[in-house]
Amino acid sequence: MKTKKKGGFSGQLGFVMAAAGSAVGVGNIWRFPYLTAKDGGGLFLLVYLALVLTFGFTLLTSDLAIGRKTKMSSIYAYGQVKSGWKFLGYITFVVPALIMTYYAIIGGWITKYILIYLTNSSKDAVKDNYFTDFITSKVSPIVLMLIFMTITSIIVFLGVEKGIEKFSKIIMPGLFVIIVGIAIYSLTLSHNVTLPSGKQITRTGLDGLKVYVIPDFSGLTVKKFLQVLLDAMSQLFFSLSVSMGIMITYGSYVKDDIDLNKAVSQIEIFDTAAAFLAGLMIIPSIFVFSGVEGMSAGPGLIFISLPKVFNEMGIAGKVVGLVFFVMVFFAALSSCISVLETLVANCMELFKVSRKKVTVILTLIYMLASIVVCLGYNVFYFEVKLPNGSTGQLLDIMDYISNSFLMPLISLISAILIGWVVGPDWIIGEVCKNGEKFRRKLIYRIMIKYIAPVIMFVLFLQSIGVF
């Protein structure tokens, strides 16, 4: 039985800004640049763009249409699409439930670096093992995580229109201005370098731009390409917030007169532009001061490599560093809000309780869970080999299960449901309910019926280490 959801977006602008806020988060600014650097620069960009225009469009359209048509969050929405498919809603619910155990921790790390630049202690951040020493300490990461979690909870507590929409309308335009500003600045940088041979060269931001956008096909094998594809798809899930219930929840708040087709295109543009600009502001600047080697820092790219780059910039670097981490803070906050909102919306429907009560209870639960994951770097430290070949501890395990394992599985099952059980017309009818023209209707049909199930099955097998 349907329950009437309280609150909703006031209009298309508020919805697009909120959805873009979820999409344009720390996944774009933190995760996208290091994956691009790891996977051959322009090669990763090409694969990611192709996925956004095909898989991203298909999955995003499906999630939003399911949410708006059922007016329910993911935990019940799939059961409304087709009787007997409620299990998919429960699987989907697990993804934000896992992500929420570590998202506020990353937000706490970002908060730490804001404090460093505010207190004029940025030189400390360039010391060897500074980041490692910080995340393995027992008090500071927990305190900062609790602060970040509290801010997230207050915004969700205020509701959809007064909290999430109002925050997104203010923050999203500002984020783009800052990203564009730093990206342009990074292209103007130059640095004299003495090679081991004694020869002096000058590396520029434009040289870094070439490394970023020109595909590197050297040593490319089928296995390596599949890994690039898996990384790009994992980033797509994380970035567009698909296959985790977030966009179904946001779709349930969307009014029937909103043009979903247009909204999907706008979210795609916001997300892809933010991801590209994030790489543009980070990769050229790191290349200028650290070369190609500096881009191998992996997930620690913005916490280890970038502070060293800002330090090389002198006084300007202190200002740029502060502005950068403030921007990343708000990007992380917008994403964390969407994850918590999804959990709150689902629990409101599950337990038939008020938003305020659910928000407080979930906040306390996730504060405790995040403390445990924080202590995974010291008190509860251990390493385990993951099926995809990487090693990690608590935070990495949560990230692997949610992003690399569950999201491809959910997308596979969802594609089967939409493509073969209820049929693509179920979604297409919702997108075109007010007579709107669905320009990519043919692409949607082909993707959801034939291509998405096959690719998702291959990626799922890849994620569990079958090949």
What does this structure look like?
This protein has about 475 residues and is mainly alpha-helical. The chain has a single domain (about 10-465), classed as Hydantoin permease, CATH 1.10.4160. Helix content is about 75%, strand content about 5%. It has 18 helices and four strands. The strands form two sheets. A two-stranded antiparallel ribbon has the order 1-2. A hairpin with a 5-residue loop joins strand 3 and strand 4. Helix 7 (about 140-155) crosses helix 8 (about 160-185), helix 7 runs antiparallel to helix 15 (about 355-375) and helix 8 packs parallel to helix 12 (about 260-290). The longest helix has about 35 residues, at about 315-350. The model is unreliable at about 1-5 (pLDDT under 50).
Q: How would you briefly describe this protein structure?
A:
It comes from Lachnobacterium bovis DSM 14045. With 467 residues, the chain is mainly alpha-helical.
